[in-house]
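Today's session is about reading a structure prediction critically. Students often jump straight to the picture, but the first step is always the sequence itself: look for stretches that repeat, for charged clusters, for runs of hydrophobic residues. Only then move on to the predicted structure, which in these notes is written as discrete structure tokens rather than atom positions. Here is the chain we will use throughout the hour.
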Amino acid sequence: MSVQKLKKGFTLIELMVVIVIIGILAAIAIPKLFGMTAKAKASEVGPAVGTWSKLEQAFVTENGTAGSFKAVGYTPPGDRADNDSEKGGTATFEYSSTTADKGKAYTNDTTGIATWQAKNKIALNNCLKDTVWLVNFDRDSIKATNIKIGTADVKGKVAVGDCGSLTPQFGYLR
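Below is the predicted structure for this chain, in token form.
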């Protein structure tokens, strides 16, 4: 019997190299994974504001004035706060309308703007808790105006920064 036939298995060095390679891959992959979970949680904001914007456009076209969540038929995502149709929330965001007269259309010149906002209830990576995604809808131009994430104006551009990077297309709302 030759020596070659008795040699089976891996050497200690080969096993250690494989373990080091797996460790390096894990060190790279785990932070990326956590970044993606925050982005996935924040992804609910886009469809929520898009739905509201389309309903607001239709309402303004039909009635000539902006409306509250209830007036336009918008139901915010998640559970309703005390059966209040102007507020809602999920595990990640709290949604609200900041218009003055709940459930009504706005007919005088000073209230031609409806507002939609989402506030994160938890920190999302570097995006601090209680950051506000805000959109005003102007009845005169029949479109979304004053689009902000926190204090940053993102209207018509790719949102950047700690919170903007989670919802980069938020500024392109129409």
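Discussion point for the tutorial: The chain has one domain: 39-172.
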